[in-house]
Design a protein that fits this description.
It contains three helices and two strands. It has a two-stranded antiparallel ribbon. Helix content is 58%, strand content 5%. The chain has one domain. It is flat, with a radius of gyration of 19 Å. It is mostly helical. The structure holds zinc ion. Zinc ion binds next to loops.
Length: 84
């Protein structure tokens, strides 16, 4: 088990990062992933954010898509020759 040492500087840096992130949200200059905070310029388009969400390590949709794939793979092994 690794214990991460948290210093006052680490906490202040995180506060600064989060304040900048909130400022970016309030200006509307970015499109953000609400789960991890990844930002894109609005001109990047909605498709870029959608692609990010499908692979975001913190977004529940990514986990759900991975689980669906696992279940589809399992279903194929249980029902060989029954492709849909
Ligand atoms: Zn994300």
């Amino acid at each position: 088990m690794t214990i991460k040492r948290v210093t006052t500087k680490c906490l202040m840096d995180e506060i600064t990062r989060l304040r900048r992130w909130v400022h970016g949200l309030q200006t509307g200059l970015y499109v953000n992933c609400v789960y991890c905070g990844h930002q894109y310029a609005p001109k990047a388009g909605r498709d870029v954010l959608t692609a990010h969400i499908k692979q975001c390590p913190e977004h529940p949709l990514a986990a759900a898509l991975e689980r669906i794939k696992e279940l589809e793979d399992e279903n194929r092994t249980l029902r060989p020759g029954c492709e849909e």
